[in-house]
């Protein structure tokens, strides 16, 4: 029997009243295993209404109440991490160990939310004028929404809703319709932890549901992670409707390798960062810039390692890389490799014909490695979001940095070198929001913020960390004067107030 994933509204399962459902496929088999309900406008409105009603009491709850619930939620997620990872693998396709890593990184932000009392601590200045004190405080916004991608169906939602809820907001999540089960399981665990009904809601769907969240007058802010064209649309539409927006877009993450680098370490790092999760990561390394005469040696070391990667279903413990999310996406990724030679690249490894015995209908693609890729090639210009690595060559460090900075994306980047001076120059000169020095995937820990530059971010705030807390709250300044009973009446003074 086909499983059905419904909405979660007001603390309970809400069957899809619209009658419209979408298919959820096991990428390893190509089989439709699940149907997910698509929300109507009325169902989105019901979720927002539940969140708005819950906000009245939740925003007035104590920090101790909020954090005690989040501590219990953290313990529940930890206890169920294998179950959540299995849901991710069944619908996304990534291997189980990678899915477990995703859950662990999501828990880092829950940890941060559990300490929200420190983040929300205000400021007080006493005696700024005679018997006048000024306090700065931060307060929640109201109902906020999150729209999240398929590639991290547990982690990215956990980048958003724990902080938003800890700050006193209520939340409506619209997860990817391609792998929705993990989001609903997180909602169930939040309820089990004691979260009041309506504080956290989940609605599934497509553009209709997204557009209603972007235009709904009771939604005060929208968080988004996805591709650059959609991020730009989210930012433009939600901003035009008076909402605060953080919209994280796509990437083309470069790794610069200098001639003095440990080439074995660099090859290990780039293979892991380029092909992990089948390249379906916004922080995947998809372009290597080899400086000087090391290019041939580096490419050969990458090829040797890449050819040994075991590709198979994510629930097989021996698999190192799983399938892509859909057949349509698999075919699109393959097209970049198929056209690479005509665009001037050298195809070192072609994974487009890869199959897995016993899983012939799965969305499989093997490892592809393209060398001497010109910047004019589509394989370099586009975010492929698959296991395709481009290698570019430059003669100098300066030429390499100029090449990286010319990219419209500025999400993450890395440099591999033994030269501390070059590394320091790079971290200051490169135009990207996250930089790794001998670290291929520089995803910040939870108490720092995640976000890119240029076409990788629309809006003023990065996600989680201090930026996340500030995004989900707004400032208020309170000026107080308690006059002494012995003071004479001040009288009327129409002049501009002065401190004295």
From TrEMBL:
**InterPro entries named in the record:** Ald_DH/histidinol_DH, Ald_DH_C, Ald_DH_CS_CYS, Ald_DH_N, Aldehyde_DH_dom, MeMal-semiAld_DH
Region Disordered, residue ranges: 1-26
Q: Name one GO biological process term.
A: L-valine catabolic process
Q: What is its EC number?
A: 1.2.1.27
SUPFAM superfamilies named in the record: ALDH-like
Aldehyde dehydrogenase domain mapped to chain residues: 20-478
Pfam families linked = Aldedh
Q: What is this protein called?
A: methylmalonate-semialdehyde dehydrogenase (CoA acylating)
